[in-house]
Amino acid sequence: APERAFLNETEILTLQHAALRTRKQRVIRDLFLFSCFTGICYADMASLTYDRIEQDAQGEWWISGNRQKTETRYVVKLLPYALFILNKYRGLTGDGRVFAMSTLDSIDDSLKNIARECGIDKQLSFHLARHTYATTICLSNGVSLETLSKMLGHKQITTTQIYAKVTPPMIDREVTMLREKLATKFSV
Asked: Is 77 helix (H, G, I), strand (E, B) or coil?
């Protein structure tokens, strides 16, 4: 399968609604989607504990921590789907960890089968999930590169730029928005 950078909205929905055959596949699909909706990588998900998850005064949930790879701090406000997965698996590990993650090799094997069953012609990985969060979930919906960089825990914004693809629909939407904002100021 060709290596492509991220899943689009249709592919995310396909995964969400797929009637997968085994419980193991359903769990791994959920872990993968959690990463798609938070941008948290495999290593940081595997070590994630409940004390990293906090509720603010408005009742919103946040995850923060230091990335294992770079020791840089990341801060993510949880979207409803990520919260749904969190609640679905709450307390199942019994040791303070949020998720019981199998080895990356085992997960990658399962993701290959899940992609095949869902008819997704992309190599699913936690790296791709992080790219999906960056591009399809955040940037495509107007989150700034600066904010995204903080959430992903990048030291340099240049890393975020490499990671996140600016797609033609994003350019279209932003210039349309700009045109509306400027319409009254510089009318023809």
From this structure: strand
